[in-house]
From TrEMBL:
Top-rank taxon: Bacteria
One Pfam family in the UniProt entry: Aminotran_4
CDD domains linked: BCAT_beta_family
Organism annotation: Pedobacter psychroterrae
Pathway(s) this gene product operates in, as recorded in its UniProt entry: Amino-acid biosynthesis; L-leucine biosynthesis; L-leucine from 3-methyl-2-oxobutanoate: step 4/4; Amino-acid biosynthesis; L-isoleucine biosynthesis; L-isoleucine from 2-oxobutanoate: step 4/4; Amino-acid biosynthesis; L-valine biosynthesis; L-valine from pyruvate: step 4/4
GO terms under biological process: isoleucine biosynthetic process; L-leucine biosynthetic process; L-valine biosynthetic process
Protein known as: branched-chain-amino-acid transaminase
Catalytic reaction(s) noted: L-valine + 2-oxoglutarate = 3-methyl-2-oxobutanoate + L-glutamate; L-leucine + 2-oxoglutarate = 4-methyl-2-oxopentanoate + L-glutamate; L-isoleucine + 2-oxoglutarate = (S)-3-methyl-2-oxopentanoate + L-glutamate
Cofactors named for this entry: pyridoxal 5'-phosphate
Source taxonomy: Bacteria, Pseudomonadati, Bacteroidota, Sphingobacteriia, Sphingobacteriales
Amino acid sequence: MNETLDIAITRADQSRLTVTDFSQLPFGKVFSDHMFLADYNNGEWTNLRVIPYGPVPMSPAISALHYGQAIFEGMKAYRQVGGKISVFRPEKNWERFNKSAYRMSMAAIPQDIFMQGIAALLEIDEKWIPSQEGYSLYIRPVMYATDPYLGVRASDSYTFALLTTPTGPYYSKALRVKIETEYTRADDGGVGYAKTAGNYARSLYPFAEAMKDGFDQLIWTDAATHEFIEEAGTANLIFVIDGKLVTPSVRSTVLDGVTRDTIIKLAKEAGIEVEERRVSVKEVIEGIENGRLTDAFAAGTAATVTPIGEIGYEGKLYTLPDASTRTVSAGIAKTLNDIRYGVIPDEFGWNWIV
Ligand code: COI
């Protein structure tokens, strides 16, 4: 980081910490006392501030609401075993945030504002970082277009916000997922690789339909043929086939996940062969049937490493090996957590100690 930025701090009159039950933390429902905001006007970011968490006044004409110029990210802050506070790979999320901003014709956020905003917020809301094992403070950066204008063009003004929410893993059990072959999440040349609101909006209806059939999540397939696996929408997907880690390669329709990238690096370090390539539905289904596929999991910041227990495809349900036999994903998940919580040395320099 370069110069120290001028961030105005307004403290909440009263903390909600005392009335928050840290044993009941559904993902994304409980917010810490404060939030960070910055405004982009006339070509520059101004009004950097930490204020009490709460509603933000806005015109109902803002272009984010009408034309979907809205992007976000997800990171986690951990309370380490030695007491330090660490954020996992925030610079990767900053880079991806600006890739999304570029694709959505939005203003870029300077690294200093992103990082110093996080640091200021964590300093004031440090007590909101949970200490239970497997828990963390999820950090949600979001940027939205604020021009009150109904013409279709990129907005000239934006708000950048950082929210934080104490949380455990997004999923609490092995997942029953459906391979989706009717609806699509992303198309070549579209915005699938960007973390933009519309990608999530378009997934909600098919997701709700799948939930009615008892599924927890969808596995998206390519829009052209529905023959290749892409991602899960809330996470990337990783399989273990013939002892190798196999994951759909990142392309214009697949998010370049930070957890995915981290797992690939850890697997290689552990001497596990990794293949990033197109992964066909056929290969996965046949792999379950002939026993060559021994593990499958969702990998994401919110999802962490969540085993996939069952896969639904064309009306049939395929059961994967019991979670207790999943030595590859369990081993990687343990190493990953040990690094994040400071149990083992951070050889890759991934932890940003705040
Ligand atoms: C994250 O893992 O940070 C995400 O953004 C996934 C979220 C949509 C639940």
